[in-house]
């Protein structure tokens, strides 16, 4: 593929994972001409090609797909589109005026001007350094996603006897994957009293293979000469501090870390854009637009989603916003609305509502949020600044591990509304 | 008579459902909170099945592996013998998305199919993209 690249584009998208791919195609469908997609890897699809397990697409495509199949649905449409792709390209800098400095081995260093920029860099995994596990600096300590790439893309099995720290979905999936490929997984450790992974993954990745899940446990030491030889596992108390005397030594050669994801926002920070300390992503309005006009963000760089389906959905929100921005179709509200995370809510995206809603056939706005604790028989509520309840919905259970949504009908927002607070409580509480 | 505790995966509640019965009949299902849970527990008790996603070696490809899955769920207790059969196979690039890699995997009647495309080395070198 030999493409003539230009130095000016209407829209430049940083990252060709599910968020960037989805947004590029959706923006083109909405009439955005001149789209450039920048990708640092040598293939498209971001993390999806290495997520070979099934469970993707049920929400968006209505059928169960594996990660590579989900990626194909988008990648296959790129050659017939007008979207230009520049891969193996690293973006070094973006100015607030939307001048992008990028680097690759074919074009060298280049400057690209954009009318609109969409940040879709995704997220990366927290490492040993991020959680400061004491002990020896040996080989054999790697993030679960790195192990996944070795096994599923590059064809290496990175260890024989494994312990996994963290019971989020990536940790659970990799415990199964290592087992299937012939490694022995001693256990999966979880510092919290509950797994943050999907019930389905707990059952199908651990229970199916008799891999123990040790709740309230963590790794307190890694030992070995050149390679991991053993680790120390400790029980933790209610304050998540290791309990002295509870230490157990486990012989192993590999430690997989599945200890959380961090939105990859170095470029965003360099631009001076404010980040939400809870999500680690940019502060955005309902258009997924950051503080800088015409700079948008979507996908895991904005908030870490549970399902790629939601990333696709968000990429379409951002793509529509980009097209409205470029065609100057937006109208500012008289007053901005601030959205606040209330009782038992860790965060709400978007953070503000800035514009009068344009889409005539869609008079609702979807709020994405997470609870801080598991709540059974939960009631999700949106209350305005005067304490007026706008909408509420019930759910059998709400957990921090599963992102929730509230559909906010926009006719409830009058032009004086300035504040909305979202909360989740036990449903019976109000009646007592 | 057998008694088994099954964790329902239909929703995040993860109900612990107790099923009593033998290989052919179910006597009781308790602990579920909805009909979906009952159905799941019944299936899981009588014949637990899983989709098996894994990889197969590729020769002459842009990548050394192609990701694959069973086209339909296979019995859970066949997973390891399926992995053994899959380990014996090397396919030649190019591999098409959906291409059948193994027919009738370990006698289950289910095919193993490619879940991505892998171009041959030469095509990849010519600049055609993954």
List the helices and strands and how they pair.
The complex is a heterodimer of chains A (432) and B (130).
Chain A (H helix, E strand, L loop, with lengths): L7 E7 L3 H12 L5 E4 L15 E3 L8 E2 H9 L8 E3 L3 E5 L4 E6 L3 E12 L3 E3 L2 H4 L9 E3 H11 L6 E5 L3 H12 L3 E7 L8 H8 L6 E3 L1 E8 L3 E8 L12 E4 L2 E4 L3 E3 L2 H5 L24 E3 L10 H19 L5 E10 L3 E5 L2 E4 L8 E8 L3 E10 L4 E10 L5 E6 L9 E8 L6
Parallel strand pairs in A: 1-2, 1-8, 2-5, 8-19, 10-17, 11-12, 11-17, 12-13, 20-27
Antiparallel strand pairs in A: 3-4, 6-7, 7-8, 9-18, 14-15, 15-16, 20-22, 21-23, 23-26, 24-25, 24-27
Helix pairs in contact in A: 1-8, 4-5, 5-6
Chain B lengths: L1 E6 L8 E6 L4 E5 L4 H12 L2 E2 L2 E7 L5 E6 L3 E2 L3 H9 L2 E3 L7 E3 L9 E3 L6 H5 L5
Parallel strand pairs in B: 5-8
Antiparallel strand pairs in B: 1-2, 2-3, 4-7, 5-6, 6-10, 9-10
Commentary on this structure:
Helices cover about 20% and strands about 35% of the residues of chain A. Chain A has helices at about 20-30, 65-75, 130, 145-155, 170-180, 200-205, 265-270, 310-325, and strands at about 10-15, 35-40, 55, 65, 85, 90-95, 100-105, 110-120, 125, 140-145, 160-165, 185-190, 215, 215-225, 230-235, 250, 255, 260-265, 295, 330-340, 345-350, 350-355, 365-370, 375-385, 390-400, 405-410, 420-425. In chain A, helix 5 (about 170-180) packs parallel to helix 6. Chain A is an alpha/beta fold and about 425 residues long. Chain A folds into three domains: about 5-125 and about 260-330, 3-Layer(bba) Sandwich (FAD/NAD(P)-binding domain), CATH 3.50.50.60; about 125-260, 3-Layer(bba) Sandwich (FAD/NAD(P)-binding domain); about 330-430, Immunoglobulin-like (Sandwich), CATH 2.60.40. Chain A is built from eight helices and 27 strands. By secondary structure, chain B is α+β, with helices and mostly antiparallel strands. Chain B folds into two domains: about 1-45, no CATH class; about 55-125, Roll (CPE0013-like fold), CATH 3.10.530.10. The radius of gyration of chain B is 20 Å and the shape is elongated. The model of chain B has no long low-confidence stretch (mean pLDDT about 90). At the A-B interface, helix 2, helix 4 and helix 6 of A face strand 5 and strand 6 of B.
């Amino acid at each position: 593929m030999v493409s003539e690249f230009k130095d000016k584009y209407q829209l430049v998208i940083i990252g060709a994972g599910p968020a960037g791919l989805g947004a590029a195609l959706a923006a083109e469908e909405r009439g955005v001409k001149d789209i450039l997609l920048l990708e640092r890897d040598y293939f498209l699809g971001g993390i999806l090609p290495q997520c070979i397990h099934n469970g993707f697409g049920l929400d968006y495509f209505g059928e169960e797909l594996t990660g590579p199949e989900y990626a194909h649905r988008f990648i296959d449409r790129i050659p017939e589109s007008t979207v230009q792709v520049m891969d193996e390209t690293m973006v070094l800098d973006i100015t607030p005026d939307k001048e992008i400095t990028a680097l690759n081995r074919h074009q060298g260093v280049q400057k690209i001007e954009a009318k609109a920029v969409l940040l879709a860099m995704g997220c990366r995994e927290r490492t040993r350094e991020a959680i400061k596990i004491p002990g020896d600096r040996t080989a054999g300590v790697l993030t679960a996603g790195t192990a996944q790439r070795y096994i599923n893309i590059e064809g290496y099995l990175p260890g024989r006897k494994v312990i996994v720290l963290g019971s989020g979905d990536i940790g659970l999936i990799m415990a199964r994957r290592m087992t299937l490929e012939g490694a022995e997984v001693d256990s999966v450790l979880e510092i919290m009293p509950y797994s943050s992974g999907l019930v389905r993954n707990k059952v199908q990745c651990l229970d199916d293979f008799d891999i123990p899940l040790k709740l309230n446990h963590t790794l307190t030491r890694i030992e070995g000469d050149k390679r991991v030889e053993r680790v120390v596992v400790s029980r933790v108390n209610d304050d998540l501090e290791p309990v002295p005397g509870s230490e157990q030594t486990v012989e192993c050669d590999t430690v997989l870390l599945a200890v959380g994801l961090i939105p990859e926002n170095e470029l965003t920070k360099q631009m001076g854009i404010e980040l939400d300390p809870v999500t680690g992503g940019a502060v955005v309005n309902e258009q997924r637009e950051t503080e800088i006009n015409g700079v948008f963000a979507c996908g895991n760089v904005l908030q870490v989603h549970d399902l790629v389906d939601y990333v696709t959905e968000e990429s379409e929100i951002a793509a529509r916003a980009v097209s409205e921005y470029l065609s100057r179709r937006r109208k500012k509200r008289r007053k901005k609305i601030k959205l606040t995370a209330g009782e038992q809510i860790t965060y709400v995206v978007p953070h503000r509502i800035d514009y009068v809603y344009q889409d005539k056939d869609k008079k609702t706005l979807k709020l994405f949020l997470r609870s801080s604790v598991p709540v059974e028989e939960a009631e999700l509520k949106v209350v305005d600044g005067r304490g007026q309840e706008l909408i509420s919905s019930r759910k059998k259970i709400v957990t921090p591990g599963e992102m929730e949504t509230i559909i906010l009908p926009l006719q409830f927002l009058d032009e004086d509304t300035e504040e909305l607070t979202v909360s989740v409580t036990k449903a019976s509480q109000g009646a007592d | 008579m057998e008694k088994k505790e099954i964790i329902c995966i239909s929703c995040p509640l993860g109900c612990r459902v107790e099923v009593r019965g033998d290989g052919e009949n179910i006597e009781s299902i308790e602990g579920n909170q909805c009909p979906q849970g009952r159905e799941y527990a019944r299936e899981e008790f009588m014949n637990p099945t899983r989709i098996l996603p894994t990889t197969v070696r590729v020769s002459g490809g842009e990548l050394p592996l192609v990701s694959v899955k069973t086209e339909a769920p296979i019995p859970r207790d066949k997973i390891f013998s399926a992995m053994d059969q899959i380990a014996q196979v090397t396919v030649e690039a190019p591999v098409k998305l959906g291409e059948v890699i193994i027919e009738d995997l370990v006698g289950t009647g289910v095919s193993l199919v490619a879940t991505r495309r892998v171009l041959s080395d030469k095509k990849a070198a010519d600049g055609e993209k993954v």
